[in-house]
Amino acid sequence: MEHADRELTPLDELYLQRACELAARGIGSTAPNPPVGAVVVRDGRIVGEGYHHRAGDSHAETNALVQAGAAARGATIYVSLEPCRHAGRTPPCTHALARAGIVRVVAGTVDPTEHGGGAAELRRQGIETTIAGDPGARRLIEVFAQATRVTRPYVALKMAMSLDGAVASRAGTRERLGSAEEERYVRELRTQYDAVMVGAGTIRVDDPLLTVRPPHDRERPFVRVVACESGPISPRSRVFAAAAGYAPTVVLVPAGLRDRFAELDGAAELLAVGEPSATALDLRQAMKDLRAYGLVSVLCEGGPKLGASLLAAKAVDRVFWAIAPRFLNGEDAVRVLSGADLREVRFRFDRIERAGADVILSGPTQENDDV
Length: 371
Fold this sequence. Notes:
The protein contains ten helices and 16 strands. β3, α3 (93-100) and β4 form a beta-alpha-beta unit. The chain is of the alpha/beta class.
């Protein structure tokens, strides 16, 4: 748990909140970098604002300093994340702040990477620097912080169920469980991740597009992922339809069964997972392959089997659990999770939201409890 280096004033907190609001504009476009926002304040007036638009472009601090111009000298900068001190595709932000004449830096949260942030360097250069330990700033980099520690994407699992723990009244039926507001919530949630993933069963039953509607302006193309194991799905499924802003759909298949999916060649990008003889889909390896493919974050909207398998494989970082105010009584009702032993899986719910008549609980799994 982070604690502020020094107590912030109400105005400090207000400007830092504005920096976080700016940072949120980059969510979904900055990977593998984190979303960051910055505000330059001099004599009680905002003279510059900026945020990181996409990887490879100028950082938030630089964009805010450019807007501030000469007014940055003697000013305070509020930035959602501790300024970087290393040179990558862009120069270190610590150098830019010193050259601009910034005299005080207030950062929302620490840089979680192994090379660390630039707070110590800024202090050595005589710049007063405070790390606020702000929970909102930390949430902004939740995906980034976890992705720097593991070799797979950050995985969020979204599940929906009735009050009696079912997802459908019977197997193989297509029915809306949640409200229209909950459906819009999920589509908006997709914009925060590099990819959305479902299992083959969801494609066969629901034939979803898995798109964001209305379309969102985004720097990085969205990716749709389908996890297959025993048998192919139709190449005419809507998930393979070309859409503006979307890369080709990725299909995960066991390497030993790739020939079964030959019909999908040309319609999708097939990723053969595991050893050449593998006949079962190793989800832990599949997630590593998705990271190697370039995906830093994945939102899984899987069915009961895929959701349970990901949890059992300890490959989930956060859950979004939607509960609809209805019952699906009956012996044929499909339980929300199935096919895996989940007794060791633990959560810490830290958010409760409303989406129409539905309630959505969200929180990290125990394996990712420090974000």
